[in-house]
């Protein structure tokens, strides 16, 4: 895969997408979003890839949206561009996506990290929604994901002040999974991705789907949805292989069928 604003690499069963606009701290213009979504979708459709990582560089995961593209835009122009349709494609990705974050994850960059299924951050990472400082609010899920994950008052502070939080505080709020020393975030994300890649692919896919569903519905419909996916996995070859391997005290050989 060849792109202008993202780089792609493969490490065994792990596909890695790196945002590469260092001159603007990986600011997310529409072309960058389109490329990173396309790269992730390509990995998602590759049977050899079982988990993905999205990362930036040590200075910035993504420092926000590209303000230069928005400064003179009007409401109709923004509506017609429909950049959020690209973000919706991100939500439809089946395989797990891990964000490896260092430095700035602000505005759209923070929203992008929180859209990922897991987040590993360096101790230099900062997460925030500074949109209020330029007269707007988050538009790619920032108000909703902060509120659902960190709670109303934390979301209000982030959205109304625009001030960032340190990685250690983001971990305490439940926004991210873990904090590691600067420079090791990608290695830790790879370790986590390689572990997930050893698990049965169908169970991983449906487990992701069930947890995401829990963020959108009440307990009763969530339990019903979970139960149906549980039953469905009993029709898979991986279920039979996994249980046989457990009883025979050997590693499972999972094929995603």
Explain this structure:
With 257 residues, this protein is of the alpha/beta class. It has two domains: 6-197, Alpha-Beta Complex (2-enoyl-CoA Hydratase, Chain A, domain 1), CATH 3.90.226; 201-247, Lyase 2-enoyl-coa Hydratase, Chain  A, domain 2, CATH 1.10.12.10. The protein contains twelve helices and ten strands. β2, α1 (30-44) and β3 form a beta-alpha-beta unit. α1 runs parallel beside α4, α6 packs antiparallel against α7 (152-161) and α10 (201-214) packs antiparallel against α11 (219-233). The protein is globular and about 60 Å long. The two termini are 27 Å apart.
CATH architecture of the largest domain: Alpha-Beta Complex
Q: From the helix content, strand content and strand pairing, which structural class follows?
A: alpha/beta
Secondary structure: helix percent:
40-55%
- CATH homologous superfamily label of the largest domain: 2-enoyl-CoA Hydratase, Chain A, domain 1
How many strands in all? Answer: 10
Strand order of the largest sheet: 1-2-3-5-7-10
User: Any idea of the CATH class of the largest domain?
Assistant: Alpha Beta
Oligomer: single chain
What is the CA-based Rg, rounded?
Answer: 19 Å
The fraction of residues in strands falls at 15-25%
Looking at the structure, the CATH topology of the largest domain is 2-enoyl-CoA Hydratase, Chain A, domain 1
Q: Report on the biggest sheet.
A: 6 strands, mixed
Taken together, the total number of domains comes to 2
The helix tally amounts to 12
SSE succession? EEHEEHHHEEHEEHHEHEHHHH
